[in-house]
Amino acid sequence: MQRLIPTLRRDHVEEGLISVINTLQICAKEISFRLHQGELAGVLGSTLDENIQGETQKKLDVLANQLLKDILLENSHIRAVASEEEEGIVDGHTTGDYLVAFDPLDGSSNIDINSMVGTIFSVLPAPKDDRQGVDLFLQPGTNQLMAGYVLYGPSTMLVFTTGNGVRVFTLDQKVGEFLLTDEDLEIPADTCEFAINMSNYRHWQPQMRAYIDDLLAGDTGPRCKNFNMRWIAAMVADVHRVLCRGGLFTYPWDCRMPNKPYKLRLMYEGNPMAWLVEQAGGVAHTGEQRILDIEPTDIHQRIGVILGSANEVNTCLEYLQGSQSATTDV
Ligand SMILES: O=P(O)(O)OC[C@H]1O[C@](O)(COP(=O)(O)O)[C@@H](O)[C@@H]1O
Ligand SMILES: [Mg+2]
Ligand SMILES: [Mg+2]
């Protein structure tokens, strides 16, 4: 089975970017090791702090963030990093060609129940003009040079794209190396599976409720087929399933907190996952526009996310855009 670096060279990835990926996989192994030690490593539970998003930080959020920052910033190719857990960006090497944005630990609420979590990352080019600070990162997802995630599940997997398909590597714990286990993931265009946090049903827009109502009606409703539902509560794991066998994943607009109607973050979750999904033949949208086309205005910006199997995402968009009539009274 092929190792990581030879695969990247075969794909003609530039050497600087290979170095960044190499550093990311070192971080992944460090985090994976601590996660698999679990309670034995004393890393479970919460801290007394809140992150910049006002959410309680888990010890592993803090640890993973620190590991990624420390290890990435040793790499001279990296100009700066931005993290979901940090208010501002952290500067690296002024001559570095790359910026790395990351969600150090996605699915934090799963940590204490020994369920799946991951690290999501997005690599952007460092602008060559006089931009500084957070402005460096305010680029649309179409500028990404590499995007991916590490899934810490029963096995640890590294899944990424450099714009040439989606590659999957699995960590061989015996030799401590990521080995290529899937050359080119492809999402089937049709699906009978969806992922949404149903407990928020009453907070959604009527159009989203109408779409989900018709999925739930199964073969007795207008969709004329039964749908299955899955929710792992870690975007990284839900999207991994969609990449592996198709499906629709959404965290849509909701009205619980009017000043925070979206949950997922553009730079750390939306953009990298959107590019992976598109590279695998799927669609990734906010309900109003293609995620990768968004011009960010803030590094911690949040967006609506609907992604996955192309035909199903497009059907959902028809409901949201009003061209599909709902059978239920909304
Ligand atoms: O609590 P909910 O509504 O199930 O939300 C789960 C969603 O929140 C997230 O866990 C947010 O990510 P973080 O753990 O990085 O804050 C997503 O991964 C997931 O899709
Ligand atoms: Mg997250
Ligand atoms: Mg997180």
TrEMBL record:
Gene3D superfamilies: 3.40.190.80, Fructose-1,6-Bisphosphatase, subunit A, domain 1
Pathways per UniProt: Carbohydrate biosynthesis
Positions contributing to Mg(2+) 2 binding: 103, 106, 269
GO MF term list: fructose 1,6-bisphosphate 1-phosphatase activity; magnesium ion binding
A GO cellular-component term linked to this record: cytosol
Subcellular locations according to the entry: Cytoplasm
Biological process (GO), any one: fructose 6-phosphate metabolic process
Reaction equations catalysed: beta-D-fructose 1,6-bisphosphate + H2O = beta-D-fructose 6-phosphate + phosphate
Annotated family: Belongs to the FBPase class 1 family.
UniProt-recorded name of the protein: Fructose-1,6-bisphosphatase class 1
